[in-house]
Amino acid sequence: MSFVIHSNYINMPAFNKTGNKFRKIFLNKYLIVLVSFAVFVTFFDEHSFIHRWQSHQRISRMQEELKFYQEEIKSTKQKKMELQSSDENLEKFAREHYYMKKQSEDIFIIKE
């Protein structure tokens, strides 16, 4: 009995053909450069996506603070107008916040 082994079957198994395709795709110099560039831009660059996302978050917080302070300014201006509009309001404010009184009055502070 003699066996004849063809060289085609020994050198090229079926799994090696698909392995070569993947190797060619993943070791392609253009793909390596593209992946390297994407990683660099995403994580390491000064203007990376991570820094841009953090900046966006900071801007959102600052815009919320801006709205809050604009509302505070509006309410403070309203209080100022009320105080300047009449002496009664000014007197009431001084009594409540600074515990001022007239000469003939006694003040009793009741804490709840």
Plain-language structure description:
This protein is mainly alpha-helical and 112 residues long. The chain has a domain at 13-81. The chain has five helices and no strands. α4 (49-85) packs across α5. The termini are far apart. The mean pLDDT is 81.
Layout of strands and helices, then pairs:
Blueprint lengths: L6 H5 L2 H13 L2 H16 L4 H37 L1 H12 L14
Helix pairs in contact: 4-5
> Any idea what the shape is?
rod-shaped
Secondary-structure-derived class:
mainly alpha
How much of the sequence lies in strands comes to under 5%
Model regions low in confidence, pLDDT < 50 over at least 5 residues? none
> Mind summarizing the main beta sheet?
none
What is the ordering of alpha helices and beta strands?
HHHHH
**Strands, total number:** 0
Q: Mean pLDDT across all residues, rounded?
A: 81
| DSSP helical segment count | 5
Entry summary:
74% of the residues lie in helices and 0% in strands.
For the structure shown, list the relevant keywords.
single chain, 112 residues, mainly alpha, 74% helix, rod-shaped
